[in-house]
Specification:
About 40% of the residues lie in helices and about 20% in strands. The chain is an alpha+beta fold.
Amino acid sequence: MTILCVRFQLPPMYEAALPRLLGLLEEFTPVVEALPPDGALADLRGAERYFGRDAVELASVIRVRALALYGVDCVIGAGPGPMTARMALRDARPGLTRAVPEGEVRDFLAGRPVAALPGVGTATARTLCEYGLDTLGRVAAAPLSTLQRLVGAKAGRELHERANGIDRGRVVPNGVSRSLATERPFTRDELDPDRHRRALLSAAGELGARLRAVDKVCRTLTLTVRYADRSATTRSRALGEPTAHSAALTRTAYGMYEALGLQRARVRSLSLRAEGLAPAEQASHQLTFDPVDEKVRRIEEVADRARAKFGPRAVMPGSLAA
């Protein structure tokens, strides 16, 4: 077990603390990959040899230091590779590291639903389930040729390897990605899809306004849905073109939300992150002859000038997106 997947239990709207917490991890290893808004992967192979402790023991030290220095608890999964560590994190609880030794990876995966495997989306999971491959154990036992016929040659090979516990991923050191994020927590666990959509509308409107205020566009939008049981689902989608247009961000956010197919889910909060930021003047835009779209863009320009003159509350974020 050499890889840790750490999720810091940051209070809402407190993700600015993440860089400092990453610095804490970097005291043990330089191989740290940020997973905004509140997580990270850490490769402890060198640290295990240097400190003479295994990854689980080092995880306990990391947890104590995070609490002592920043008042932040964390949950930690440990495994021989990034994929296993990420999946172990889902079983972790505060104060207890969920560790999966290398020799137990296949047994750990076998009974889990196929949708639990990172990289397996809703459509792929549905296809596999239609053929009775609803658990990773059954996928692991299926012939490679069968999987390749169902999901494609490359995807089938990767799926077969991962279901058998073969993890070719690695931790890629980075800093916190250049991004903007906003979160919409609910006062109580929210079941109503209409309220979910209104929260997304507001969040996308705010992101668009903030991007335009700094003359930036984003290439990718990430949606994180946090549930009542403290679990979370994260989905990312590349935009058709770099944009700071609130309506385009809203459409993308709605699309990701609908693709989750939530059935009466008790949602605690929704957050959106605009990633892959670039200067607006360097972005290319597809010409449009839609008068409605042009009208909305002109209204956004007026609203942005109002915010600049009278403050951010002059226009409610999201009120212009449709």
